[in-house]
Structures are given as C-alpha cells and as structure tokens.
Design goal:
With about 180 residues, the chain is of the alpha+beta class. It contains six helices and 14 strands.
C-alpha cells in the first residue's frame, strides 16, 4: 500500500475527476487516498512477461489484456492492478476505468503483499464479473490463483512448479519459465 495522502473526496466520482488531472497515480480505498510508489525491476519484468503472454493469448477473442496504468473500480474503491483481462463490452468501450474484469493479477512486493492478499482482495471479490485473482511473488517465483466457485466462494489453487500459471476462465497456460523469464532464480 502506498503513502496515505490528505483526502477531500466523498465519492468515487469526485476522486476519479481529480485523479485524472494528476501526474502521479493514487488509489482510493475506503475513502482514503494512497500515493502509488515505483516498482522494482523484478516486478516490472514479471508484469511485462505475463502481459505479453496474455495479450497474445486473447488477441481476436473479444477480450483485452491491460496493464499497470489502467484503473479498476471495485465498489467504492479505485485501484491500479498490475494486469487485468476484461471481456465486458462496456469495459472495452471505457477509456479510464474498468468495472467488469474477468481476471486481475497483482505482482507482490514486500510492502504490498499483505494488502494485496487482504483488503484489496476483499474489495476485488465484490466485482461480480471477476473469475480469477492471481498473486505472483517474483522473489520466490510462486503463484497463487484464487478462483470463484459457483456458490461465490473462492478456491485457492496454489501453483506447483510443474504447472505454471493456469487461468481456466481464459483457457490460458504459461510455464513458470515464461512468467519469470529473464529473472534470476
């Protein structure tokens, strides 16, 4: 989670209007504004690897992979996930904020891991279209995939090294070597 900033907004719409005019990115969580910080090379490399794989996979499917600077609204919160995939017609027409992703991927850092696993995941679970939430630790090269089950429960499918990353909602598979390409093991 980033640095807490002074907040003067009561609604997501007010925050989005203001944030669109800012040079730096901020997230809006539970009525508070948090400045986003820069990322380490392992974070950026992992994001780029996976985005490239997903973009190629969804090409021509009616879905779109987006990364890093794309906002997502989850209830009354606004986040910048590392990668999202949406297949929703309204999202495909949207310019600044996605509201109906199928997959959200967060690349963990020591400072954000607890937030990404806890409060942020709780907010993301409120998005009805979300089918899979992925947490990737580039330092340990470990991947956790949470899948929405029919009763709206979430199942953790921890990845083993031989399996890599499997996204059932997109019929997508990538090996760990592909996800962590160019990273030192």
């Amino acid at each position: 989670m980033g640095l807490l900033l002074e907040n003067r907004f009561k609604t997501v719409a007010e925050f989005l209007d203001w944030e669109a005019t800012q040079a730096e990115k901020q997230e809006f969580y539970n009525g508070e504004i948090f400045a986003m910080t820069g990322a380490r090379q392992v974070h950026v490399q992992t994001t780029g690897n996976l985005f490239s794989l997903l973009k190629n996979h969804v090409r021509g499917s009616g879905c779109r992979a987006l990364m890093t600077d794309m906002r997502i609204q989850a209830a009354e919160n606004v986040f910048y996930p590392d990668i999202l995939v949406t297949c929703d017609p309204d999202d495909l027409k949207a310019d600044l904020v996605m509201r109906n992703p199928r997959v959200i991927i967060e690349i963990l850092s020591p400072n954000t891991a607890a937030y990404d696993r806890g409060e942020k995941f709780a907010a993301y679970r409120q998005i009805e279209s979300l089918q899979e939430y992925v947490l990737i630790d580039p330092d340990t090269q470990h991947i956790d995939v949470y899948r929405r089950m029919p009763e709206n429960d979430w199942l953790l499918a921890a990845s083993e090294a031989a399996h890599g990353l499997r996204l059932k909602s997109l019929d997508f598979h990538a090996t760990l070597a592909e996800v962590f390409e160019d990273l030192q093991a």
